[in-house]
C-alpha cells in the first residue's frame, strides 16, 4: 500500500489511487468486514441490470497485503469531475461541514480529505445547463429500478460536471455501492417514492455545497415541485 495514494476515507472504506499513470484505478480497502466486498459486487450487478449509470469495472482484488475492490478512477480524465455531497454529510443526517473546517481552520489538508470535493467546493458552479432534462431522465430511470424492486440510497450518487467551467451540463454515476437494496416485499410505488426522495436529497445537497449561493434557489424550487407528495 506504500505506493498507493490515499484520496478519501468513509465509514466503511479507505480509498486509494493506484500509481499506474496510463490507467489508474481506485482501490477500496474495507475497514472492518471483508464481507462488504461481495455485497459491493452484488450491488454493482443490480444497478447495472436496470441500466443506470454506474462504474464500468468492479472487481475483487486479493494480494498478500490486502483484499479489496478495484474499479476505474472517475476523476482520471481531467475534463470532468465527479463528486459526492456525502463527504459533507453524516449518516445521521446531521450536517457536518468537514470541508469548511478543513479549508478555514487547517493550513494543510489531511491525506484523507476528498480531493475532488475539495476542488469543486472551492470552484463552484454558476449554472447547470441541462438541469431540467437531467432530473426528468433520472425520474424515469428510478421508476425502472423500482419496477425491479431496487432501492438506491442518497449516498450512492456521484455528480459529474465540467471541471474548469462555471456553466456546465451535469450527469451522474452510481459509484458508492454500499447502500443498494432489493426490497422484494415492498410495493413498486413505495420504492419509487423512496428512490426519488434519496435522489432529490442528494441533488439538493450537491446544489447546496457545489453551486454558488445566488443560483441555488431556482434549482431547489424546481426539485421541490418535482418531488412526489407524501400522501
Protein described:
The protein is α+β, with helices and mostly antiparallel strands and 231 residues long. The chain contains 6 helices and 12 strands. Strands 1-2-3-5-4 form a 5-stranded antiparallel sheet, with helices on one face. Strands 6-9-11 form a 3-stranded antiparallel sheet. A two-stranded parallel sheet has the order 7-10. β1 and β2 form a beta hairpin. α4 runs antiparallel to α5 and α5 packs antiparallel against α6. It is globular and about 55 Å long. About 6% of the residues have low confidence.
How would the blueprint of this fold be written?
Blueprint: E1 5-9, E2 13-17, E3 25-30, H1 35-49, E4 58-62, E5 67-72, E6 80-83, H2 98-105, H3 115-122, E7 127-128, H4 131-147, E8 150-152, E9 157-162, E10 167-168, E11 171-174, E12 180-182, H5 188-210, H6 213-226
Helix pairs in contact: 4-5, 5-6
Amino acid at each position: 500500500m506504500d505506493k498507493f495514494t490515499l484520496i478519501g476515507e468513509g465509514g466503511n472504506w479507505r480509498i486509494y489511487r493506484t500509481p499506474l499513470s496510463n490507467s489508474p484505478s481506485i482501490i477500496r480497502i474495507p475497514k472492518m468486514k471483508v464481507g462488504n466486498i461481495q455485497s459491493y459486487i452484488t450491488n454493482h450487478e443490480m444497478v447495472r441490470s436496470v441500466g443506470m449509470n454506474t462504474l464500468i469495472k468492479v472487481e475483487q482484488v486479493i494480494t498478500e497485503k490486502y483484499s479489496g475492490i478495484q474499479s476505474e478512477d472517475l476523476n482520471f480524465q481531467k475534463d470532468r469531475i465527479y463528486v459526492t455531497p456525502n463527504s459533507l454529510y453524516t449518516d445521521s443526517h446531521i450536517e457536518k461541514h468537514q470541508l469548511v473546517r478543513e479549508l478555514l481552520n487547517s493550513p494543510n489538508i489531511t491525506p484523507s480529505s476528498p480531493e475532488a470535493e475539495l476542488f469543486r467546493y472551492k470552484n463552484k458552479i454558476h449554472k447547470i445547463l441541462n438541469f431540467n432534462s437531467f432530473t426528468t431522465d433520472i425520474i424515469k430511470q428510478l421508476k425502472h429500478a423500482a419496477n425491479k424492486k431496487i432501492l438506491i440510497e442518497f449516498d450512492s450518487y456521484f455528480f459529474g460536471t465540467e471541471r474548469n467551467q462555471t456553466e456546465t451540463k451535469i450527469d451522474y454515476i452510481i459509484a458508492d455501492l454500499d447502500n443498494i437494496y432489493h426490497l422484494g416485499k415492498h410495493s413498486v410505488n413505495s420504492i419509487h417514492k423512496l428512490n426519488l426522495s434519496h435522489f432529490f436529497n442528494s441533488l439538493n445537497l450537491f446544489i447546496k455545497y457545489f453551486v454558488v449561493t445566488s443560483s441555488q434557489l431556482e434549482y431547489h424550487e424546481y426539485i421541490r415541485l418535482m418531488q412526489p407528495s407524501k400522501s
